[in-house]
Amino acid sequence: KGCYGQPYLEITAKASIHDETELRQHFWHENFLKYLKGPDDPNYIVIRCKPQKIRLINHPESDGPYTLTLT
C-alpha cells in the first residue's frame, strides 16, 4: 500500500559538529570500519542535533499538523 498518507514526524534541529577524542571514542562502533579507519580517523566526527521544533503530520486523531516548539 505504500507510505502515502501515513503519520510522520518533521523535525527541525540545530546541528553542531564535535570532534573531541572522548566523544569519538564513546560513539565508535566496529561497523564503522567499513567506512573509516578507526575512531581517530580525521573523517570521523560526531554531529549533535538539538531539536527546535517537532511536527506530527497526518495523524488520524488530529485535525491538522500538531507542532511542538522547544526552547
List keywords for this structure.
71 residues, mainly beta, three-stranded antiparallel beta sheet, 38% strand, elongated
Would you mind describing this structure in some detail?
It is a single chain. β2 and β3 form a beta hairpin. The longest helix is centred in the middle third of the chain and has 7 residues. The protein has a 3-stranded antiparallel sheet with strand order 1-2-3. The protein has about 70 residues and is mainly β. It is elongated and about 50 Å long. It has 1 helix and 3 strands.
Task: Give a short summary of the structure.
With 71 residues, this protein is mostly beta strands. It has one helix spanning 21-27; strands spanning 8-18, 46-57, 66-69.
The N- and C-terminal alpha carbons lie at a distance of 38 Å
Order of helices and strands: EHEE
**Mean pLDDT across every amino acid position:** 92
Number of strands: 3
Identify low-pLDDT runs: none
Biggest sheet details: 3 strands, antiparallel
> What general form does the structure show?
elongated
Numbering strands along the chain, what is their spatial order in the largest sheet? 1-2-3
- Percent of residues in helices: under 10%
